[in-house]
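Next up, a specimen:

>
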Amino acid sequence: MDTLFDFLTFKRFISFEALMVFYYTGALVMPFMAWGLSFWLLTKYQHARTAYQAAKTQFWSTLSWRHRLVLIMSFVVALAFMQLFWRMLFEFLIAYLQIRDSVMQLAL
């Protein structure tokens, strides 16, 4: 009963296990879910698919192969930076919780 009360009053955290689940969910599952959502929207709504196809054809036909390569590489680099930021965010959260645990041990 004390552990449940400690959990409900935030004296005990579920932190590390939950952070690991949320990290891998955000890093691995969410990009595929975003791609799946966009694919679903394009298949469900005919107007969105028509506009997407017209814009894609117009956009890619105006770019040279160098500009296409730069655009694709920019997307890959942006994705890598987003993954790096996501990782650093969770590392800061874990470090905060470890510092808190250390301070709590000093207080006892």
About this structure: The chain has a mean pLDDT of 89. The radius of gyration is 22 Å. Residues 32-107 form one domain. Residues 65-107 form the longest helix (43 residues).
